[in-house]
């Protein structure tokens, strides 16, 4: 299976660039998240994505080999904070995951938070820890347990620990910007995950098969779709604010 990346910039094109002109690598799990992160291209952000950890690590390593000024974990996340609605934006102070607790770059995170708080997104922006896991966390009870065991992490994803480890290995600044998609109190129906391919793209047929097996999942799937719409809208707006202010890039 090919490793996914939203850019096709050659290594030769990267050669000779100074650190200030190298891109920020946005690490995501799904194709639509990478599309938001990459935007129209040409503004210094390169996005890599895959749902399976080894594919994501390979894509990220290749991007970092071409050169980077920083690494940001960007995309959607499951809500852990009991009061966080879909579309809430998390600028993380640290990532609590399989590799332990890793601090985000304080100056970069503060600049991002300040830009969002000085925008129409202020009321939906939160600071705190991001949890990271190696397998999907879809049940409300499991999310509540992780919220407690992580010391109050606000949200959870499957990529931030990989992005943090890669950034640390290269001595690069690391940050997190995530939008809550499924709130803490909501369990996801099995159909919601059925179509996710290893490379981060989505297939419709497995979702339809799962719905045919259990049609009662349809209501839950429609709620997931509405939540995903709120998260996508917030993430797109955050990308616009952060790039316009320059806060998407380490200082």
From TrEMBL:
Segments forming domain Nucleoside phosphorylase: 59-184
Any single Pfam family the record assigns to this protein: PNP_UDP_1
A Gene Ontology BP annotation from the UniProt entry: nucleoside metabolic process
Molecular-function GO terms, alphabetical: catalytic activity
InterPro entries: Hopanoid-assoc_phosphoryl_HpnG, Nucleoside_phosphorylase_d, Nucleoside_phosphorylase_sf
Protein name: Phosphorylase
Gene source species: Paraburkholderia tagetis
